[in-house]
Amino acid sequence: MVFVLPSHNQGEIEIIFYTSYLIIDLIRVNKNMLSLIW
Fold it and tell me: Is the pLDDT of residue 23 over 90?
């Protein structure tokens, strides 16, 4: 599904998606490190 957004919101939406993706990636890496430690 593709959402057509107003141009002034596009940058904010992309930043939100990017930061949330980075946070999820960090959590995944931390879980991998924890599983290696334990």
Answer: yes
Distance between CA 9 and CA 11 in Å, rounded? 6
Q: What are the structure tokens assigned to 33, written together?
A: 């490190």
Say if residue 6's pLDDT is above 60: no
Is residue 16 included in any domain, yes or no?
yes
Tell me the pTM.
0.53
Q: 13 φ, ψ to 5°?
A: -60, -45
Q: Which domain holds residue 21?
A: 10-37
- Domain assignment of residue 25, yes or no: yes
Total tally of structural domains belonging to the chain: 1
